[in-house]
Design goal:
The protein is an all-alpha fold. It has one domain. The chain is rod-shaped, with a radius of gyration of 55 Å.
Length: 163
């Protein structure tokens, strides 16, 4: 993977930077220890590690820039994914909120219909009770009138027989 190569390049360059820096320090310490001025031999000992140091610093910087670009790209992709997810979540939330509102309105209408139906049922029950009461009264009156009619008929029959 490219990421592994960048990391490996960066680590290798860092190790070589350390070695080159160590060579430069060793050369300077030797000159200082011997207490002499830097001569052409010392300069050649310093130039080669310095050039290696500069080369590997450039390699490490390039690998670091690539890693930064990669990390930035990953972050942008992650941000885009999160933005898309947030948008989808907000859309879903709005859809669900609209559905909940629709169901609440439907429930309200059903409650109104239920109250109206309950009132109608109560009115029908009251009407039915009134009809039952009237029917019972009519049946009672009918029974009373039939008894009176039989009594009158029997009285008429008795009177006819007596005359």
């Amino acid at each position: 993977m490219v990421l592994d190569e960048w990391i490996k390049d960066s680590e290798t360059a860092t190790n070589r930077i350390t070695k080159s820096a160590r060579k430069i320090v060793d050369c300077i310490e030797q000159v200082a220890y011997e207490g002499r001025r830097v001569d052409s031999h010392d300069m050649s000992c310093l130039v080669q590690p310095r050039n290696e140091l500069l080369l590997h610093v450039e390699i490490a910087m390039r690998a670091g820039r690539e890693l930064c670009r990669w990390a930035s790209s990953i972050q942008q992709q992650r941000d885009q994914v999160l933005t898309n997810y947030l948008t989808q979540t907000q859309t879903r939330e709005a859809t669900l909120a609209a559905e909940v509102q629709r169901l609440i309105e439907k429930l309200d209408r059903m409650e109104v219909d239920l109250e109206l139906t309950q009132r109608q049922l109560n009115e029908q029950q009251n009407e039915s009770q009134k009809k039952n009461t009237i029917h019972e009264s009519v049946e009672s009156l009918k029974g009373h009138l039939q008894r009176q009619l039989r009594q009158r008929e029997s009285e008429c029959s008795r009177l006819v027989l007596c005359h």
